[in-house]
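Subject: Protein record for review, amino acid sequence with backbone structure tokens
How to read it: Take the token row as a discrete description of the fold.
Enclosed: The protein record, placed directly beneath this head.
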Amino acid sequence: MMRVIYSFSQVCAIFIGARDVPEVENASYDFIVIGGGTAGNVIANRLTENSKFNVLLIEAGPSDAGVEEIHIPFLCTHTTPNTPWDWNYTTIPQIGLNGAAISYPRGHVLGGSSSVNCLVYTRGSEADYNRYASYTGDAGWSWSNMFSYFKKSERFTPPTDNHNVTGQYNPSVHGFSGRNSVSLPGESTGIDGRVAAALEELGGEFAFNEDTNSGSPLGFGWSQAVIDGPTASRSSSSTGYLAPQFLSRPNLHILLNAQVARILQSKDHSVAAPSFKTVQYRLNKQGSLLTASATKEIILSAGSINTPQVLMNSGIGASDSLRSAGIAPLVNLPDVGKHLADHPIITLSWLVNSTTTYDDFNRNATVLNEAIALWEAKRQGPLANGIAQHIGFVRVPDNSIIFSGKGSNPSPGEGSPHFEIFISNFLLGNTPPTGNFLSISAIMLTPGSSSRGSISLNTTTHPADPFAPPIIDAGLLLSPTDVPLMREAVKSILRLASASAWEAYIVSAATSSQPTISASDTEIEAFVRANARSAYHVVGTSGMAQKGASGGVTDSKLKLKGVQGVRVVDASVLPFVPAGHTQAAVYAVAERAADLIKADHQ
């Protein structure tokens, strides 16, 4: 099939296929997918498996092709913020973070956040998905059902260095023929032996877990990442689900650099609920608004920030808030943009007695270029690794005083962790001119029920400019259990760093403000408030709920409530943030969603 490039308003709009359509407005599409990110590319791929379905995929950002910062695993920390591949959002001041406004990266490129995240592949716990099933009344979201979708999406590959992986993962819980490549670390590091010795010495919460992606993640093991081992490259929804063999499908068209403003209500009033079948967008952030229409469904996969923004700009949301923004309300769905949930993260670092850390790659252009040359020539070397070789999950005892009084246990169930710890062979953050460092980070996985933020429209203009960055409140550290759990995570890190395996290695804390193992609870909690930030695992802003429930934005089949012809498929539908990085969950959600869509249009 030929690749045809059309020019609209001096912008390349890319169509994949042989059909000679002069403009998108004159084409006939069964489905339009808004957002070529983690979920959207899955939907586009799976729907076009049926040659009878014509699909248009609209992505606001540029192509990811040829961008080494995106495709070289270790350079994941260079993809955001303040780059062309990031929406470059900033939150409002966060009460829980001493009033700090924080950067809030989101992928603005084909592949979305799967093209710019730090590649960690964690699924969460069995209890996470059983809670989704219970909350929505749909057993299809249970672990026993979703496990097949994790395996369907995954193609586990041997690590780049082809080392013996026996005992480093459990093959029975992985897939080997999916679109999304996953692998183990592809280059050994100077801390691997020390980590193993520390875990063996300490035991208990640091006990070994052969595979933390089995649904039972408690314990420590080797980190898995979305890296294609044979090519030592990032695996994103773009490289996997939009690989060349899929781009050649004549029923798949992809339009880049096209930002969606809103979806438009159909003039057909013969249906009981309002029908939305038309997408309004602009190219290259300029020019007049253009339209494209779908005969079957619009699938909104713009992510946890942009999906609610598009809905509100379309007149779908809380009616009073829409009127205040100068938008005529069409469908009253008060939960649109509400109930944002996210994971806070904290990092502790130490100056170490070593010259084998990865710090020089972040501060010395000559050293970095030599490593890039090695990667380009042989697809080997330290840049084949992500940010962490080792990862672990810890659960606070159920009888902890943290959960007494006002602080009920926010865990979804037994066997589910309260926090994650990962270990990095470099300073995770701004690298100083000299020194070698070790970083150990903790992500608090179970924000309490009060830790909820929101997405709202920027009302500085009336009506609201549909392309103005939305107002983001991350809602971090607002629940009674949040800071105490972060405190316990810091204590766990300090216990790990105190193991005798580090005695000849760790020299001193990287900063004088970092707490020591003898620090008081008050001192640790102050450090958390001053230094915690977001792990960017944003969910909940278009949350699914039971079909007849008064709340929620979608039903359990991900259909937009009170509307015909629109479905939401991205992280925003998850009503609770899972106990892991969200990309694995989103791949599985999108795989199930594709099956649900196909079943409705057989």
